C-alpha cells in the first residue's frame, strides 16, 4: 500500500490546531489532530529541554508516526507533502527511527517527499478535519507525544 500524507495547520503555529492525514490509492483515509493548547504545552517542554527549534520537526514526526503506526505492516511507501523544505532528511530520519521501534522490515528509502496537490485525498481529509467539517480519527495529547518520545 502506498499512502500520501498531508498536514493542515502547521505544528509551529501554536494558536491553531494541527491535523495530519493520510489517504491510500484505494480511498482509505485517516487523520490525527492535536490542539493548539497541547502544542503550546509541548513547545514549553522543548524549551525547557533547551531544544526549542527541534520542537516542530519532532512533533511533526511523532504525529506522522501516530497516524501510520497501526498500518505499518501494510505500507510499501510513504509519500509526504513537503511541509518543511530543506528538512526532509531530518524528518525522514526522525520518522524512520520511530517506525523501527515497531517494524524492522520497513526501509528508510520508502519514506519520500513530493508535492501531493490540493485534490489529493490526504489534503482533502486534512483540510476538512482542520476546518471541523469532519472529526479526526484520533485526538493526540501531550501524553501521547511524550510517551513516544520517551521510547
Can you tell me about this structure?
- By secondary structure, the protein is α/β, with parallel strands linked by helices.
- The protein has a single domain (2-149), classed as Nucleotidyltransferase, domain 5, CATH 3.30.420.
- It is built from 5 helices and 6 strands, in the order E-E-E-H-H-E-H-E-H-E-H.
- Strands 5-4-1-2-3-6 form a 6-stranded mixed sheet, with helices on both faces.
- It is globular and about 40 Å long.
- 36% of the residues are buried.
Structural class: alpha/beta
Shape: globular
CATH hierarchy, class: Alpha Beta
Strand content: 15-25%
By CATH, the architecture is named 2-Layer Sandwich
- Assembly classification: single chain
**Gyration radius, to the nearest Å?**
14 Å
CATH fold name, please? Nucleotidyltransferase, domain 5
Low-confidence segments, ≥5 residues, pLDDT <50? none
Q: What's the rounded overall pLDDT mean?
A: 96
Concise overview:
By secondary structure, the protein is α/β, with parallel strands linked by helices. The protein has one domain: Nucleotidyltransferase, domain 5. It has five helices and six strands, in the order E-E-E-H-H-E-H-E-H-E-H.
